[in-house]
C-alpha cells in the first residue's frame, strides 16, 4: 500500500465544499495524482457541539441534555434541531434532488435510530435495576459518530457526482455487533480497497474497543487519521486546516504579523500539543514518529503554500525560537507543607493522586516544601483533587488560582541570553512572571503569568522574537 498519502480535513474546511474540492482534492489532477490519497474527515463545523456540547460556550448538546435528564423533550428537541441543520446543509450541497435523497436518508435513518435507542434506554433505566450512568459513555460515542458519518458520506457522494471513483468508508460501527481494536478495525475495513484506483473518504470517528472519546477526547479524528497512515505505511500524512501552523495564534497576534513555520520536528509538535495549540494530537504523533512518516500541516485556503513539514530529524540551521504559544484558564494548584522537606516521595505521591483524579497536567514543579501542579481541567476536577490532597496532607496549605502558561518553542533554542530576552520582553510590557521553567534539552521555555496577561504576553514575546530587528532565524519553506 505504499506510495499514497493519508490526509485529514478539519471541520471548518469541510464546511466549505468548494474549497475542499478545488484546493484539497483538485479535480484537475491527472489520475495518478487524483488517487493514492485517503481522506479522513471531521464532522462539519459545529455539528459535534450540537451532538455533545459546545466546549467554548458550554451550551449543552444532545448528549449533555440527555445526561442531565431534566426533560424527555429537551434532548429530543435538540436532536431534531441537529437533524434540521444537517438536512439544510444537504439542500445547499446537493442541487440534484435524486442525489440529495441518498444524503437525507442517511441522516434520517441514523437520527431516528438514535432517538429510538435513547428512548428505549430511558425506559429501561426507569425501572431502577439499570443505571443510566453506566451507559452514558456509550451514548456519547454513538452520538459523536453521527457527525463524521454525515460529512464523509456527503463528500463521497459529491465526489462521485464529479466523476471520481470515491468510496465512503464508515468506521462508526453503526448497527455492527463486532467491537474490534482500532488497529484491527482499520485493517479489516481498508483491506479490500485499491488506493491507486479508489479515493477513500473515511469517517474520523472509529467505533472500537478503546472507545475513542473516552480515550482521546474530542481529538479522536486525528487518532484515526494517524492510525490509518501508520497501518497503511503512507509516504506522508497531511492535515488540512483553516490556518497555517504559524509563529503564534493569528487570532491573538494578527494575521499580518504571523508567518508559517515551514519546517520543524515532532519534538516541537509535542510541546505544542501539551498546551493545546495542536499540530496533531499528542497520542497520535507517536505512531508517525516510529514509522518515520512525515507530517505536513497545510492551510486549506492557501493551496499553493507547502505548509509546515514535521519530521523526526529536522533541526533549525541556527538556534532560534520557532513559535510562541500558550494556554489560559489554567489552574495553578499549590500544596505547601513543611513536613515534605527532604522527602521526595511526596512529589511522586501528589502526582499519583492527580492522576487518580484524572485531571490534565500541563506541568509540575516542586521545591523543598511546595509542589505546584498546572492543570487544565475544570472546577469539578480541581475540587475533587483538592479534597483528595487535603485528606492525604491534613497539615498542608492548599490553594489554587487561574494562570496562563506561555511557551516559546524551537527545535534548537541553545541561544545565550534567551532566558533574559524572554524576561525583558515581558517586563517591557509590565507583565510579571509568576514562574519560569527551562529544560536542558533547549526546546522550550515556559513562563507562567496571570490569566489576564495571556494575550499581552503572547504579543510581547512574538514582537521580541519575530517582529524586532534582532530576529536571527527565518522560517524554512517546507
UniProtKB/TrEMBL annotation:
InterPro entries: AceGlu_kinase-like_sf, ACT-like_dom_sf, ACT_Aspartokinase, ACT_dom, Asp/Glu/Uridylate_kinase. It is an enzyme of class 2 (transferase). GO terms for molecular function: aspartate kinase activity; ATP binding. GO terms for biological process: homoserine biosynthetic process; lysine biosynthetic process via diaminopimelate; threonine biosynthetic process. Coiled coil: none annotated. Residues 407-478 form the ACT domain. This is aspartate kinase. It comes from Aliidiomarina halalkaliphila.
